[in-house]
Amino acid sequence: MIDLTRVLAGPYCTMMLADLGARVIKVEMPGIGDDARHIGPFISNADGLPSSGYFFSINRSKESIALSLKDAADRAIFERLLLDADVLAENFTPGTMDRFGYGWEALSSRFPRLVLASISGFGQTGPYRELPAYDMVVQAMGGVMSLTGEEGGPPTRVGVSIGDIAAGTHAVIGVQAALIERARTGRGKHVDISMLDTQISLLENALVRYQVEQVVPGPIGSRHPSITPFGVFKSKVGHLIIAAGNDRKFRDLCDVLQMRDVKADPRFLSNSSRCEHHRALAARIEEALATRTAEEWLPILTQAGIPCGPMNDIAGVLRDPQLNARDMFVSLEAPGGMVLKTAACPIRFAGEQFANYRPAPELDADRNALLQELGLV
Amino acid sequence: MIDLTRVLAGPYCTMMLADLGARVIKVEMPGIGDDARHIGPFISNADGLPSSGYFFSINRSKESIALSLKDAADRAIFERLLLDADVLAENFTPGTMDRFGYGWEALSSRFPRLVLASISGFGQTGPYRELPAYDMVVQAMGGVMSLTGEEGGPPTRVGVSIGDIAAGTHAVIGVQAALIERARTGRGKHVDISMLDTQISLLENALVRYQVEQVVPGPIGSRHPSITPFGVFKSKVGHLIIAAGNDRKFRDLCDVLQMRDVKADPRFLSNSSRCEHHRALAARIEEALATRTAEEWLPILTQAGIPCGPMNDIAGVLRDPQLNARDMFVSLEAPGGMVLKTAACPIRFAGEQFANYRPAPELDADRNALLQELGLV
């Protein structure tokens, strides 16, 4: 596939397709490249120049060629690349591809088997189609922020760019669906993914809850809305998750935390009553947890049969035994020799190894090989 | 495809496949059905009995048959269904399918073209494989919570079940990839999706940032870490997003908010200095915004060329003009006659209409039609 995408949603989509076996040729602006090459954190390359660790983390296993879509000779190379391609991906503001002369009508008449994947902030249609795409804006407009944060507190941004990433994964689904249908029809399609649209499909039960209960849902904090105790609790050092989903687990929890009075307290006898008095119960649980660290508590709670889990920070994530057993981190050598771990592809097929991860390319790194392959030099 | 999944991650995956054109036959436990049928909010069905709006929102366009995988006659029907199926989806705890006699080895030897999609909390391998899957636990273990929340505050759950939903979308990708490869090889695959794994692939730049900067990233609040002002601001009524990404936009913002002294303040002259003094600047901006509601400010800011957007709550989402122009809400009649809007499929193909959304089925609703179709009655 040919990849005109920049920054995050598009490159994330094409990286996943590369992970799944696609050959991805990244077409970048001469001299500048993907904007993500200019976003930190930076590492020093072999020449001591800054090289983007951010770019490195979302462009593995791709090839790079620098072409200007405004230059006639470069356009000829670009069109030669399209001749062999199954998919073209782009995440310009809608209308930009038309101005390049590569709108869907023009492309599909010349390359009828080509699938065009377009990712934008608001989609190819509708009144906001030409507005710029910002992750935070679509998180805010899509309602996810209105549900995230402390109960009664302000709306809160999800701490990862879920606006971009959800769009990227849904674009992968759209491309695959178009390829599956092309096998039958022989014709490509224009996949139109809007970052805002994909936020709506993450809302899960909130839409229906609002319509049935006629109450606008607000931030729900870090506890289960209808099971108590089930949520995040603070220990002597660090937080942990305790998920005592029924009366028996709750009584077991009281035993292991030596909270005899809590176990007998009429406010805490049933789940519905515990939900009503969740603040008082959380205070007592955190008082008991204050004697040990989260790391010390987890084996004790697990031993007692209480569902629980660590609150991993990023350092903890990288150490996590399950994630390491699943080979969820790929170590790749970045420009300058630093070895960086990035998230592996989470799509696994039993009995198969992913072994074809290659580091992200330097700008224009594959020009000569590609031109030779096309017979253009 | 045949669908044994329950509650959220699995049904979300199979709903998306149904939206894309797959025929999905939901096999449910007799008398009980999908656990989601017992999760609120509830509406009254035609008999005045409670019917789950939650189930309704994630099971559209599927058929339902009740079969016990422990009953010989029902197993024969189930296996007859598998004979014609491309895909079987399940989200039991790993090991459960083996106990039913339907582990991957057994299935693939009898149905070599079948794709088995398994979704679990921690995957089919690794030390935690048999632990139960809870959205909050994988959100905590996967690191997303450690990045979400107010700066300096506690880790915060993302207000939607991103643990389940990310697993569901990645399962769709895995199923499609397996079907594309099957067209070449003639053989199915076992797709193994772990909710925890998919959390890692959402972490975006956090993994690399930590490794390069050697500082464990914490909650980053609702503002851009390196552009100011860019984030959520409070108005007289409601919050809004302002994304003044450069010096010129910042000066324009000062003009429209009539903050002459802020515009001249040396602390706010450059973006890096604005980032350093972001709290002081936010206080001044919110002081200025306090004179009008978010709804009043948005057209004024837009007119002045300041990138901005509404902080939609769920009611605002349902009213949003762009989302309505994109037909992002599907109105379907729930049991009892209430019409509920659910999120439409966000995967669009230019020039095509999705028109085949059907309401979620009642338990066992399609038994007779299915048995007739199979020649079993």
UniProtKB/TrEMBL annotation, chains A, B:
PANTHER family assigned to the protein according to its UniProt record, in alphabetical order: SUCCINATE--HYDROXYMETHYLGLUTARATE COA-TRANSFERASE (PTHR48207)
Gene3D superfamilies listed in its UniProt record: Crotonobetainyl-coa:carnitine coa-transferase, domain 1 (3.40.50.10540), formyl-coa transferase, domain 3 (3.30.1540.10)
Listed Pfam families: CoA_transf_3 (PF02515)
Keywords: Transferase
Domain of life: Bacteria
Listed name of the protein: CoA transferase
InterPro entries referenced in this protein's UniProt entry, alphabetically: CoA-transferase_III_domain, CoA-Trfase_fam_III, CoA-Trfase_III_dom3_sf, CoA-Trfase_III_dom_1_sf
GO molecular function: transferase activity
